[in-house]
Input
Amino acid sequence: MTPAPIARIAGLAPYALADLPEGGVSLAQNESLRAPSPQALQAAARALRDGALYPDPDWRDLREAIAEAHGLDPAAILCGAGSMELIGAIAAAYLEPGRRALQPAYGYAFFRTAGALAGAATDLVPERGFTADIDRLIEAASSETAVLWLANPGNPTGTVLSATEILRLREALPGNVLLVVDEAYGEFAEAGTVWPLVARGDTVVLRTFSKAYGLAGFRVGWGAFPPAVAREVRKPINPNNISAPAQAAAAAAMRDGAYMRETVAMTAALRDRLIETARREGLAAPESATNFALLPFSDTAAAGRAGAMLRAGGLLLRGMDGYGLPHCLRATVGREDAMAALGAALAEIRETEDAG
Ligand SMILES: *Cc1c(COP(=O)(O)O)cnc(C)c1O
Output
């Protein structure tokens, strides 16, 4: 016999990610189409020699690299085992039963999981098409709202709000709301960054090495936090959260900005071609400022058929049921050959649908 798990754990669904078919290509997790920077890999290899030692709990070199690249104060930066760890730590520090979180209807699903783990309910706010609606978010914020989660650019929508619009949101929100702007795809949309808002004291900006830097397997994310918020969010974080090779790889990747910008440019070109192809095949794909495209089908059944056909052809896209968009599939931008195969498959799917 064991004790029953507490209700908020028992009530969560197990993490489910579709299995990759044999020999298939995963376009399901928004991973980079490119290997990490060679400089990152060399730095990680050098760090292996000190593997008997605990990693730096203050992430000093990594924070310096980030601060230098972005013109930030190293003291404002916290690093996580992926930005998911920081999202969990923010929820642990600011959410509890009786407090509420707020996010756009098609917002990143892990925000809701983190809130549920902390025992807080999440209110979903309708979007305008596939774009977060600032006015409705402002209307929906109440005295119980402790955290507003906003991925910008959005995942899975791929759409982006301007820094001006986010400033307008912040200025209209009450002081009891901590605004968390998750810029996991910010490198693909530099115009959208809102770091200057961190100085206000009521806003956090998150970034990750998992997408544009191609280090998803190393698990490194970071954020810019106001000092009082950083002090609290640090407490629930595991003190030795990021392995030394991962810290070294991330610092070197940050210092190799040219490699990252090249990745972003290659990705953006393939992404825009994918969206063009999707539209030609009758799918109203929104513009994307990320490394993926959202593909809306005519209905849930059509998306299911398309997902199955793609899978049979070795391409694994992510179904969007969990995001309130069951008629959509999300396609990560992969290498050129995979994108060519995806384009051909979308044409075939359209022919099949037209014939049926
Ligand atoms: C991918 C993603 C993350 C997770 O990043 P990790 O740093 O790998 O934990 C966070 N937020 C959004 C919106 C993402 O798409």
